[in-house]
Write a structure and sequence with these properties.
The structure is a homodimer.
Chain A (H helix, E strand, L loop, with lengths): L12 H6 L15 H14 L4 H9 L6 H4 L2 H25 L5 H9 L2 H33 L7 H17 L2 H31 L21 H11 L8 H4 L8 H29 L10 H10 L4 H34 L17 H17 L4 H4 L5 H23 L5 E3 L4 E3 L4 H25 L1 H33 L12 E7 L5 H13 L3 E7 L2 H15 L3 E6 L6 H14 L3 E11 L3 H5 L4 H9 L5 E9 L36
Helix pairs in contact in A: 2-9, 2-12, 2-14, 3-10, 5-10, 5-12, 5-17, 5-18, 6-7, 6-17, 7-8, 7-14, 7-15, 7-17, 7-19, 8-14, 8-15, 9-12, 9-13, 9-14, 10-18, 13-14, 14-15, 17-18, 18-19
Chain lengths: 668, 668
């Protein structure tokens, strides 16, 4: 038998903010095309061009501000671009190999096992959280450098932006995709205009060098290979966010793999052009790293002229893309958390889709954790940066190692052979050797970059991530073993279940005797098993009154008074129940009590709600079942049926009378 | 039938901090004698001598530092002492008239009605909270002036002291009385030694004037009557705390009234002697108010000599009594809150005595509210002082007005007549006219002081109390009407209760089919009413698997799948239940579901606990009873009886098997 559903939609604050619930069948339609997909999944990667060149120059400047030293930024940027191309090609292979959602987690799970997969998961989740914290802190810093009077409220502004972003994302990916595509394309437009004008002015010989920049002060260091490596690893910040598309394949319209792969290629090409272009222009205008002016600003005012509208648009677009980069994590974190939760390594609730078909728990968890980082670090970007990017490079390394193993598997197949693997179809590919080499080379490169990162930034904060990721992996496995233990305890496969009836002893817990008590007694009588009433005598006078009222108003059934010299409520009941269970080993003890239900939380808080306390206190006893019989009290002062159609029978057992006196019966 | 109680006492942190539970019969013994009563109830009043003289001098100094101006402090102190004597005499009358606990609240309730009583209650509760916040902040300020490196942690220290004081008070009044009597008597000893030596040195002509004090800077004001009145009202801070004994009569050993009255007289005498003595000595040594040195310190070093041990003891004793003054509120607040809660104007929970027979909820509420004031105000005494004392004088005024009405009632009796009043015995007293005049005069004086207070300190913070007290009174009445409404709805006095059995329709909510499901089915079968199983198809694949498993493992009963296109759990069940209720108006709908019970909160949080959600969601439906059947999962991975004596029957319905496979049955 199947009952047809009915819509039921009172307008609440939740509905206003989040939107109408979407049916599950809308899931297939809740996807994005390539244009919006680029905006949703690439804003993190693209935004890193706003600071990657500067990070290289900051390290190189330690060895001096001469053009020959800072000029090393160009080969470094080319090397990073090559690495980026390798990683992008490797991820493109992943997108085709794992069309149901790839990313480091699934690739590692399929090819390397549970432990590497969980390490990749921990690394990526950490970095998603940090992306939100870093990007929004950096964006707020841009706002507060323009409006210094807002500086004392930077934490509040950052948390406010996180809240706004959370609401937008809870509405669902398509709408948030549309909203977030505007700033991404705005940023791309102004950056390409800036690069274009810059190139034209170079060709016409009209581009001046930057003037009036106060360079950073550094203790001069020798130009060693280590320093160049450090500059290289710092510049690799440009690569954060590249993995977002392969994690989010399922968010793309069909054909998913082709759309996602094409978006990835576009993103990589745009990223490399922007990154190389900015680095070249910076070199051309002889930009130097400065405490007070970003390299983007130096480029902007040199190309467009100080005070021009295009200069302001360049800065504005950069600020916006930094804020929007955080949105990549809102797409990536909940999906990855749902995957891990589905495997039983994170709480199962993360797999549930909310009203708007998004993973609401994951979005909420990301918002809370990122807000915590922002609050603890006081929304200071400099404090967050050293924690950042290690996780991404760890996941790059694991993912590409996994793809190398995957290609080795394919190499073992006969030509033309197709085998169904755990996650995807394995199909012979004559180019498996080349692909395996690309992935292996990428894994080695990103692994080295990660190690350089961790070593050079360890004392500045990277130690926290080095400790956090193993701790998270440990937690994930503890959760996993818990779920496994529970599943084992609940399994029916090994035994013939013994379905049969037991005897039942009903106990009614009575405080005072009033209309609610009558309802509880009626329910106990309706069940038809042997029953008696228990009263815990916290107050002996009240116990006597309850006994007298019982005789007067109920007049049947045994009324047992249990003394409680220490005024405990649950202890004496537990003992009484335990004694019954000892006497009758094949009996369910069914404890029934009334529970006054109020209209509001505050009204409810004015009552003792002892039913809830008993439920918790007796829940750990085997064979004891606790039932609360609700009795609704409404604000007009009467108990009434809550529904117009609800025709209750006559009598106080279902309806309370409108009596004028005020007995002390409400004290529970 | 009465079951004998058994002691059950696992050692917990609570037991370690608070002590062993005390039986209710110990209540009568948990009282204090006069010596400890003075320390418990008088430390607030006595501590105010530490700053009352200084408060007078600060106001007078606005008109200049000449001896003729500052000398006005002596007639002002005498006037305050007379007022204090009048108030003390009035409260002594109250103690005899209301031997079961007097104080402004009961006197007002008995003579003036509900509204004045609640105003007095709101005023006193506010002032108890402020007493804790002010006294502890002032005490911490003394500590941090001695140890300036602790200044950044003043809020933490203040909250820590509140916590310590809370634990001591949760242990019970007798123990806390003993602990707190030490600093009170230490303070009294050093102050009387100081006054004694001072008087001897005056008589022998060897007391010098104070040297080296940097006076406060003030814009000189003319010496007006208003300024003198302001100085008078500031000095009236000496009177805060006088009402504590009459509120706490029941804490005294029998004969309560005589012990309490005698303690009150002792307190008033000591207070007047100290206050006048300090004011006289201050005048003699020509003390001036200063930003950097208190008047007590000026007296101490002039009488004992700079750097002497007695000077240090004087300052130490003053610091201690300031901290201990807060303890008066720990005695007063919970008692008054319990009184008001007993009348239904505050949550009923405040009337419950905890393990150690004290009103634990009241103590906790006081600690939380005082901590909130300390945290919000940054533990700065100067910010808190203007809020303080208005409440006390409002309650003085109400209380003495009530006593005047009380005496008028007595005056209407015939000589020798005795009438039982609401709160106390009314007995003719030939001196009723004098007593009535004393109370009336006291009420007028304290009323004027209160108005002067409120007017002169309004903008400095008194406005908050002027707004807060009416708001509290409004809240108290809202709570009161709520309790009255509930009592009316539950009353059985006007109707013959209809005790009889109804039919019952049992519904089992099933997620997956596993060992817990078997137990739920067994319980439903044991109840013996018509039953069917419901599954909410949030995930259609899971629904199909559940239906198949049901057939395989349970094999009986109807299995109904309810579609849920919007993935809601409770909505579809509500509708289904509502339809049954519409069809069968004389039936209880009994919803049964399993609930996995874990060992720890964190394990519990890994499961959906949908049983709790359903309980909340269906609790407002009339005639619907929700039962959770607990199924215990223990950490070793199996379900087992929780108690050695608990002999469960054979079969999976009570015990889970130790199966090796891991089905997905744990996802609820």
């Amino acid at each position: 038998m199947t009952v047809p559903p009915k819509p039921h939609a009172p307008l609440t604050l939740k509905r206003l903010l989040i939107g109408e619930p979407l049916p599950t069948r809308a899931l297939a339609h809740q996807t994005v095309n390539r244009v919006i997909g680029l905006a949703v999944f690439a804003s993190d990667a693209l935004s890193s061009t706003a600071y990657a060149t500067e990070e290289i120059l900051i390290i190189l400047a330690m060895a001096g501000l001469s053009a020959s030293v800072l000029g090393l930024s160009i080969p470094i940027a080319v090397a990073i671009s090559v690495l980026l191309a390798i990683v992008a090609i490797s991820y493109r292979q992943t997108i085709y190999a794992y069309p149901n959602g790839g990313g480091a987690y699934i690739v590692a799970r399929d090819n390397l096992g549970e432990l590497p997969a969980q390490i990749a998961g921990a690394a990526l989740l950490t970095d998603y959280i940090l992306t939100v914290a870093v990007s929004i802190s950096a964006g707020v810093a841009q706002i507060t450098s323009g409006l210094p009077e807002l500086t004392p409220y930077r934490v509040e502004i950052a948390v406010g932006i996180i809240l706004l972003m959370t609401i937008i994302n809870l509405r669902g990916v398509r709408e948030s995709g549309f909203i977030f595509s505007i700033p991404t394309y705005f940023f791309l437009t102004v950056m390409f205009v800036t690069l274009g004008i810059g190139v034209v002015r170079i060709l016409t010989g009209s581009l001046p060098t930057v003037a009036g920049v106060e360079p950073m002060h550094h203790v001069a260091e020798p130009l060693t290979l280590f320093l160049v490596l450090r500059a290289f690893s710092s510049g690799c910040a440009a690569m954060t966010g590249v993995e977002a598309i392969s994690n989010g394949i399922t968010a793309f319209k069909e054909p998913r793999s082709r759309n996602a792969a094409s978006t990835l290629v576009w993103m990589a090409v745009i990223l490399i052009i922007l990154f190389l272009g900015i680095t070249l222009l910076a070199h051309q205008i002889e930009a130097v790293p400065s405490e007070v002016e970003t390299v983007i600003s130096q480029i902007g005012r040199t190309v467009h002229g100080q005070g021009s509208a295009l200069y302001a648009l360049t800065l504005g677009g950069t600020t916006l893309i930094l804020l929007m980069a955080a949105n990549t994590s809102y797409a990536g974190f909940p999906r990855l958390a749902a995957l891990q939760a589905g495997d039983g390594f994170l709480p199962r609730q993360l797999t549930q889709r909310g009203n708007r078909l998004v993973f609401s728990w994951g979005i909420a968890a990301l918002a809370l954790l990122a807000s915590a980082f922002v609050i603890v670090m006081g929304a200071r970007t400099t404090a967050l940066i050293p924690l950042y990017a290690i996780g991404v490079f760890l996941s790059f390394t694991i993912s590409q190692t996994g793809m190398a193993v995957h290609m080795r598997k394919i190499g073992r197949l006969k030509p033309g052979e197709r085998v169904q693997g755990l996650e995807a179809m394995l199909e012979y590919d004559p180019r498996w050797r080349v692909k395996m080499l690309i992935s292996t080379f990428g894994a080695i490169c990103t692994g080295i970059v990660m190690l350089v990162f961790a070593v050079t930034k360890f004392t500045a904060g990277a130690w926290f991530v080095v400790v956090l990721i193993p701790a998270l992996v440990l937690l994930f496995f503890r959760i996993h073993y818990h779920y496994k233990d529970v599943a084992k305890a609940l399994s029916l496969r090994q035994t013939r279940p013994d379905v049969h009836a037991y005897s039942v002893q009903t106990l009614i817990l009575v405080d005072g005797v009033h209309a609610e008590t009558v309802r509880v007694v009626n329910f106990a009588k309706s069940l038809g098993h042997p029953w008696k009433a228990l009263h815990v005598a916290v107050n002996p006078q009240k116990a006597e009154k309850a006994r007298a009222d019982w005789g007067r108003y109920i007049g049947e059934g045994e009324f047992v008074v249990i003394p409680s010299p220490f005024r405990a409520l649950t202890g004496p009941i537990r003992e009484y129940v335990q004694n019954i269970m000892d006497e009758k080993p094949d009996t369910f003890v069914h404890v029934i009590m009334g529970h006054l239900v109020m209209d509001t939380f505050w009204e409810q808080a004015l009552h003792q709600n002892s039913a809830l306390i008993f439920n918790l206190a007796l829940g750990d006893l085997d064979r004891v079942v606790v039932t609360m019989v609700p009795y609704q009290i409404h604000r007009n002062g009467g108990a009434k049926p809550n529904h117009a159609k609800d025709k209750a029978p006559e009598g106080v057992g279902m309806h309370a009378p409108a009596a004028e006196d005020a007995p002390d019966g409400s004290d529970q």
